[in-house]
Amino acid sequence: MRPAWLEYVDPAYTVDTSGTTKIGKSWPKLVAQIIAFGAMAASCMLLTRHWFHADERFSLMVGIAWSAFSVWCTLALLWQAVSLHGSLVTLSPEGLIDRRISDDRIPWSAITSITVTSGRRIGWLTLWFTADAAMALPPKIRRKTSRTGLNSTPRSLSLHSNTLAVGRDRHQDTLSRYHRRYGPKT
To answer: How far is CA 23 from CA 6, 10, 85, 170, in A?
Structure first.
């Protein structure tokens, strides 16, 4: 059961696909993640220090790697908290802008479908593209896409809702409404 404050939605948030919808960051979610990763980094460092005295090389290597990963995650979240102001995701009739990835627009015509991928209580949305549409994406976005197929062409882009002011279900609903209205008609 998730606490209600994690699903805070700005009262001004509506899904009107005729205009622009902006989704901001959720400060409670962001602060909770920073605290969790910071605590994980500190505990990993303490355990690594303990393992270092025990002189177990494998444990030392795992501890150092896990500590480095936890510190990296904490710093990435702090960077996002400090550097990104205003809305993180902007949906308009022209396309989608996710400022966590790039300030460039992804046109609705490039997206073939939107799916939910989840595992172990974590979920994200995956935007799927045709090979031609993916190659036409701006370079900054194209670098973030997953490569699939025989020619290793970019085909999908994963978006998470962890730090957004809306949950994954509402994020998917909003994206799907815009995509149904402005995306390619099949």
So the answer is: 15, 9, 11, 11
Q: What share of the chain is helix, strand, coil (3-state, %, to 5)?
A: 45, 25, 30
**Parallel, antiparallel or unpaired: strands 106-107 and 89-92:** unpaired
In the 8-state DSSP scheme, what is residue 5? G
Instruction: State how far the Cα of 41 lies from the Cα of 72, in Å rounded to an integer.
Output: 9
Q: Could you read off the pLDDT of 57-106 as tens digits, one per residue?
A: 777 777 788 888 888 888 888 887 888 778 888 999 999 999 888 899 99
- The span from the CA of 86 to the CA of 102, in Å, is 14
pLDDT (tens digit per residue) in 23-60: 888 888 888 888 988 888 888 778 777 666 556 677 77
Distance CA 178, CA 42 (A): 42
Q: Which of 126, 123, 86 is nearest to 106 (CA)?
A: 126
Beta-bridged to residue 72, according to DSSP, are none
Of the candidates 175, 164, 171, 169, the one whose C-alpha atom is nearest the C-alpha of residue 6 is 164
Q: Answer whether 0.90 is exceeded by the pTM.
A: no
Whose CA is closest to 77, among 41, 110, 130, 53? 41
Amino acid occupying residue 34: I
Provide the token pair at 107. Answer: 């046109």
